[in-house]
Amino acid sequence: MTKTTRHLLAGLLTSTMLTGAAFAAGTHPVTGEALAEDQTFTYRVLDEHSSVDPQVVEDVSGSEIVRDLFEGLLSQDEEGNLVPGVATGYTVSDDKMTYTFTLRDNAKWSNGEPVTAQDFVFAWQRAVDPELGSPYAWYMELTSVVNVAEILAGDKAPSELGVKAIDDLTLEVSLSTPLPYFPQMVTHATTFPAPQAVIEAHGDQWTRPENIVSNGAYVLTEHKPQERSVRERNAMYWDNDNTIIDKVVALVINDENVALTRYLAGELDRTEIPAGQFPRLQKEYPAEAISFPRLCNYYYTFNLTEDGPEAFQDVNVRRALSLAVDRSIITEKVLAGGQTEAFSFAPVSIANFTPPASEMADMSQKERDDLAKQLLAEAGYDSSNPLSFKMVYNTSEAHQKVAVAMSQMWKQKLGVQVEMANMEWKVFLEERGNQNFELARGAWCGDYNEASTFLDLLQSSSGYNDGKFASERLDELMASARTSDDTQPIYAEVEGIIATEVPVIPIYHYAGVYMMDSDVGNWPVNNVEQNWYSKNLYKIAK
Amino acid sequence: MLAYTLRRLGGAIPTILLLIIASFFLMHMAPGGPFTSERPLPPQVLANIEARYGLDQPLWKQLWDYLTNILLHFDFGPSFKFKDRDVNDIIAQGFPISLTYGFLSFLVCTIVGVSLGVAAAIKHNSWLDYFAVSLGIAAQALPNFIMGPILILTFTLWLGWLPGGGWNGGQWQYLIMPVIALSTSYIGSITRITRSSMLETLNSNFIRTAKAKGLSTRTVIWRHAMKPMLMPVVSYLGPVFVYVLTGSVFVDLYFSTGGLGQAYVGSALSRDYAVLLGVTILYGMLTVLVNLATDLAYAWLDPKIRY
Amino acid sequence: MNFAKSDKAAQIAADFTDATAVQGRSLWRDARDRFVKNRAAMWSLAILSLIAVFVIIGPLFAVWDNEEIDWDVMGDVAGMGFPSLASGHFFGVDDLGRDLYSRVIQATRTSLLVGLIGASMALVVGTVYGIVAGFVGGRTDASMMRIVDILLAIPMTLVLILLLVIAGRSFTMLFVALGAVSWLTMARIVRGQTLTLKNREFIEAARAGGVSEMTIMFRHIMPNLLGVVIVYASLLVPEMILAESFISFLGLGISEPHTSLGRLIAEGAGTMAYGTIWQLAFPLFFYVTIIITMFFIGDGLRDALDPKDR
Questions:
Q1: I need a labelling partner for A451 at 20 to 30 A (CA). Which of A313, A382, B76, B107 fits?
Q2: Can you name the CATH fold of A293-512?
Q3: Distance between CA atoms of A338 and A334, rounded to whole angstroms?
Q4: Nearest CB partner across the interface for A133, out of B36, B41, B163
């Protein structure tokens, strides 16, 4: 049995070049910039996170904290490439079904205990344990680790999960399919280690600041729900000498306009820019207003079941509606934050995949509108028999703006009568999940940087396929992609199916639109997943 | 008086009980549950979670368990959303905050409102009167939620005097804007009520008699007019007190104080049943107690009332 | 939000009922004369009528529909969306490039409707409930009032939120929710007055004459309650509008493209630092004007119908 070995070179220059103590008031070892005295990074979060337990966390704000508190097998650098985390490297068996990770021997928990392979085994078994009921259990299912589905269904015990500690520093993972992007998936919080002794001692309350033990660059020192959480340097962290930021403060500020005011008053280092305000702020603060592509899409999904309107069964109607949406107005005038127009389901910024050229993307908006009118007329709708339907979105000012703009485009160009309804989040999920809608908003952010994280959503078996689009060919293709070395042609065909069948109307792909204080160094704008790690940031002296 | 108080408190028990039952069923009627999420949970996982929180039981059983837990252990159960906290923690954390700025706002609006109102009535038809009246009307007509952004823009961005939000253990810098924002609209209505009540009192026969006897204006006002004047004010202050403590959603939202108002609205939106119920009960009890306090204050002010 | 648990209103009501019962119809003319002499109230009435007229005929002058987007202005609202006669956007445009003139008219209509319908719902439900409780008396009265007391103990803001979260939102639901929280005090006042009225001579006379209970309730007692009910309802209207603006602020109000003044103000307040101050100024002007005039009219009515002040 030969093995392909891949060593992950230490991607972080800092970790190879340096040994040394605190950097405060010094200069940055690589760039030579003068560092600020106070290395505190303060940022705004929209909402209180629900948990910082790696296996339980589900929201973005919680995941940001978890990535600082805990370290998984692998991490990402500023470009989104894999770099060593707790594991220094891994080997893959010939059949690509067995991964063996080698753990570093100097990784420690914040209580001084060494981080071992057993900690990962415990964490992974915990993630799939129906007893815990992790909201991200489905993510473990996507990793194809042996027996996940059976354990989640309650047919097998969590101990039968395909993950094993060969010794303290060797972790072996068995997969049920040779999933090519498995290593990317272990940068996600759900796969991070968990301290068994602490969890058993404190139960649900182990994540409180007074109880928590973590293995990342930071430890949680303060948590005032709905107000702030603070994490500070972890002296036990193996790479603590190269960490520059001492303290990270997350402030909960619900109102984005208030957050912007407080940013301008100097209270924050980072905040989101409200929809439509980017051009103005860019003019006034060119060094601070930044925008970069993110791995998220925004679309509307047709209800294709019998509960949906009959008109949507006609592909021409769906195409016409998609064509008539002038995406450039939404990206440039409504949101105006550097978002990109979407003509494909998977974002263009995704790794190892370029969406195929689509007929629609090449047309001018005028041509699209003309074709839309023609298609709708062919489908039998005109001014005497106008198409009418109801669109729903969850309550939010930005979603409302997009919906209003879309409905006006349809009304003015095609004479379509659209009734808009906003619902609060839980009601929205319930109604959409039960196919109790006609046209509904949808959006997804990639859980890993690979097109399947998006394209999977339209498989007939997907839990997020609320429009119940079903294409046998698409299911086949997505299944074959899980074992293929060259996924580009497969995903291109899937996008082709989506473009002809139009089960959804892709509107735009997200951008990160921030006000970022110019003294924050090294923010990973090129990491489309926005997996940022405070330990890689630094504050420049003003 | 003691017997009356006890009787009233006893009467509050069915009120609270009914409140719990009504909120409980209303809550369960709402579409979507605490574990509705974008990707539906695998059925076995969902079943396990629901069993852990007792949601698999019939509703009456859930209600019974809930009530017995409260009565026997004073335990309002765990939060469904925030995994490492239970309802007692959330209330213990948020209520002192709401109570602090709510109580301060109550003091500010009462003191400022009553003084302005009394002064306006004594100096009837003077510039002070007109000033107080127009201020009162303006403060009352402005929706209180526009105070938040105005204050933050002024004091944080332009003047740079105060931090734009947060709580920080309740330091005074963090208290000023929430208190101003919350008390403004009540200053308006308290001024109006005090003024008209004072005018009415000053025109009444017994005050004229007192004046005729040759007592000084000061003595007349402090000794004789104050108590009867306060009666309508007190009956208005009761509901205000409950409101500044409970309706602080917009203060929590703009100033990120971490108070209970935001927790309440948040729990309603995320279907965190336990938190929702816990806070509702707390607010209900508060209302009952404040109503009782108002009635007792009334008895002190009006010698005709005997309980 | 305080839904007028005003004991003062009850006290005034008591005085008022005493007077009506004795004096009969001539009081109405007195009241009208007193109201007409109240300058603040008359001015307010005139201004409010102007607003009502504006809401009705304003759309005739509108260049833009209330939901129509001006695509040219859309991307640069701060630069091009200011109020202007030339562009046809008399009040400027909102954040999406929709005409604020048309939207303010539509919002004012909504808010006035919310005020009037919300108050009338409270009026109808509260009056009927109060009369029945007071007139039937005995155990029925005790249990009916017990229910009111319990409901009054529930924080009303929270009930509003709960109702709107649970039942979804629509015009009807908004009216129901607002009505549901505001009829309680009305019921209490009406019941109190009914209790004093039902032992009066003219009721005794009617009963002796063989008039049915139903007829007595609604033909003899109800007309005598009208004054107090009108006074209280006029005070309720601005409170309903305030309550609706609070609901809109929480994002639980009515759905697009419909809007209300509270919602426009909330939107305008969010963007007040971004150079589009007209988005706050126009809706706020109409809102404040309506609330202030309603206050004065309410005060005027109270003074006019309250015989104590003569």
A1: A313
A2: Dipeptide-binding Protein; domain 3 (3.10.105)
A3: 11
A4: B41
